[in-house]
Write a structure and sequence with these properties.
The chain is an alpha/beta fold and 338 residues long. The protein is built from 13 helices and twelve strands. It has two domains: 124 residues, Rossmann fold (3-Layer(aba) Sandwich), CATH 3.40.50.720; 192 residues, 3-Layer(aba) Sandwich (Rossmann fold). Helices cover 34% and strands 14% of the residues. A seven-stranded parallel beta sheet has the order 8-7-6-9-10-11-12, sandwiched between helices. Strands 2-1-3-4-5 form a five-stranded parallel beta sheet, covered by helices on one side. Strand 4, helix 4 and strand 5 form a beta-alpha-beta unit. Helix 2 crosses helix 13. The two termini are 36 Å apart. 38% of the residues are buried.
């Protein structure tokens, strides 16, 4: 037996939450790899912790900029395992081909799609506000009026697995569903009575616009002052994709002026300092986020769309398989290539 086959890979696991430990420990019950959990995010300040590790496992708010990547290379890290689908936090121009990056391209797409629809229903019918009213024995209906989703037009931007499932759920509500994707799936669209149209047209026609595309240099801030001006005044915008798909300052201005109707956000462009952490005893220094939280027609959740039993299980399974495959010199099905 070779020396490499006897070596148990050491993995530095950053931004570890209790649920991460639970689900990854379950997947690693046989000790196939040696995981050291760090509560801290991976940053220039914490990257020295990776010395003597074979791999790092990171999440959406860990930093993999040029400085961090240079230190990872120096420390002999051989693999970067993203336990998420997005990889916009990796500076691939600085990384080059020195360290492979693997990811979880899909994990319970139903979880994310169902959360997107939950946001729509909650914001529309104001069930979150009604809950707090009735807890105070306030049974007034004033200010809680919504609209029938039946017969309205939904615009889906991005028809990967999550976008397609969202579209199918909304078709079940009797909505007209329009879609945009760089690579349209016309066979699927025909089967589910979904119509692909141009981006400007989807902005103009949607009553509910929901974002399910990855973040790329081409679609950075695709929702901005110009595109917002094309939309219906009562449009609801839902984002469970990536925070920087939306220029939040422009969104805030459109909400303040009544240019658009409602917004539901599970992601936020400056979420790194806030999401996944408890800041309830602190003052929010982010003025845009603080202002958004004051709007009755804005609903924000803390990047929880993936957060189901099935979602966490899938993330742990695929991430562990990616790590084990690499150290067994097997083909990497989920390697990121840019």
């Amino acid at each position: 037996m070779s020396e490499s086959s006897l070596h148990v890979p050491r993995v530095a696991f950053f931004d570890a939450k209790p649920y991460d430990r639970e689900y990854f420990s379950r997947q690693n019950s046989e000790g196939t790899v040696q995981i050291t959990y760090f509560e801290a995010k991976l940053t220039a300040e914490t990257v020295p912790l990776t010395r003597d590790f074979d791999a790092v496992c990171v999440f959406v708010n860990d930093s993999l900029d040029a400085e961090v990547l240079a230190q990872l290379k120096q420390n002999g890290v051989r693999l970067i395992a993203l336990r998420c689908s997005g990889y916009n936090n990796v500076d691939f121009s600085a990384l080059g081909n020195d360290i492979p990056v693997v990811r979880v391209p899909a994990y319970s797409p139903h979880a994310v799609a169902e959360h997107a629809v939950a946001l729509m229903l909650t914001l529309n019918r104001k069930t979150h506000r009604a809950y707090f009213r009735t807890r105070d024995s306030n049974f007034s209906l004033s200010g809680l009026i919504g609209f029938d989703m039946y017969g309205k037009t939904a615009g889906i931007i991005g028809t990967g697995q999550i976008g397609r499932i969202t579209a199918q759920i909304l078709r079940g509500f009797g909505m007209r569903v329009l879609a945009y994707d760089l690579y349209p799936d016309n066979t699927w669209a025909a089967e589910h009575d979904v119509e692909y149209i141009t981006l400007p047209d989807i902005y103009r026609e949607a009553d509910i616009l929901t974002l399910h595309c990855p973040l790329t240099p081409e679609n950075l801030y695709m929702i901005n002052k110009g595109t917002l001006s094309l939309m219906k005044p009562n449009v609801m915008i839902v984002n469970t994709g990536r925070g920087k798909l939306i220029n939040t300052s422009d969104l805030l201005d459109a909400l303040k002026t009544g240019r658009i109707g409602q917004a539901a956000l599970d992601v936020y462009e400056e979420e790194t300092e806030y999401f996944f952490e408890d800041h309830s005893s602190q003052i929010l220094a982010d003025d845009v986020l603080a202002r958004l939280l004051t709007f009755p027609n804005v609903l924000i959740t803390s990047h929880q769309a993936f957060f189901t039993y099935e979602g966490l299980t899938g993330i742990a399974q695929v991430t562990m398989n990616n790590i084990v495959s690499f150290f067994r010199d097997e083909r990497l099905e989920n390697q990121v290539t840019v």
